[in-house]
Design goal:
The protein is built from 4 helices and 7 strands. The chain is an alpha/beta fold. Strand 6 and strand 7 form a beta hairpin.
Length: about 140
C-alpha cells in the first residue's frame, strides 16, 4: 500500500501486514502514523488524496466556525483510535480556498472520505463520536 508521510508528504510503499508496526518514512524517517490529523494544504493535499492508497477523511473547517471547533476534539480522538485504517486530515477552508472550491464546499464543517482521488462519502455538519465512527465504518 502507498502511504503519504504526514510530515513531508513523501510516498512510501508499506506492506499491509506492517501498517500497525509503526512504519517510518523512507525520506524523512518520521513515523507514518502518529494518531493525529494531518494539516492539509496545497503542498500536500494531492499526495494524501490522490497518490496515497489509504482512505483520507477530510474535515473541511474554519477557525471562526463554532460547530467546527466543537467537532475538532471528536475528529482528533477518532484519528488516534482508527489510524492506520484511515488517514485523517484537516483543511482550513479560509487558508486553502482553492481546494475547498475544487470540492464545492458550501457549508462547514463538511466531512469527506476520499480514496484514490475520488470522493466516496460526504457529510455536512458535525457528528457525535459514535455517529462519526458509524459513518466511517459504513463508508470506509
Amino acid at each position: 500500500m502507498i502511504i503519504a508521510c504526514p510530515e513531508c508528504a513523501g510516498l512510501n510503499r508499506v506492506p499491509n501486514e506492517r501498517l500497525k508496526q509503526d512504519p517510518k518514512c523512507g525520506k524523512c524517517k518520521s513515523s507514518l502514523f502518529n494518531g493525529e490529523p494531518v494539516t492539509l494544504n496545497t503542498a500536500n493535499f494531492d499526495h494524501h488524496a490522490s497518490k496515497a492508497e489509504l482512505p483520507l477523511v477530510v474535515d473541511f473547517w474554519a477557525n471562526w466556525c463554532g460547530p467546527c471547533q466543537a467537532f475538532s476534539p471528536v475528529f482528533s480522538a477518532t484519528a488516534k483510535e482508527l489510524e492506520p485504517q484511515f488517514r485523517f486530515g484537516k483543511l482550513d477552508t479560509e487558508a486553502q480556498q482553492t481546494i475547498a472550491a475544487r470540492y464545492g464546499i458550501r457549508s462547514i464543517p463538511t466531512l469527506m472520505i476520499i480514496k484514490n482521488g475520488q470522493v466516496i462519502a460526504q457529510q455536512a455538519g458535525a457528528m457525535p463520536p459514535e455517529a462519526f465512527k458509524q459513518w466511517l465504518s459504513q463508508n470506509g
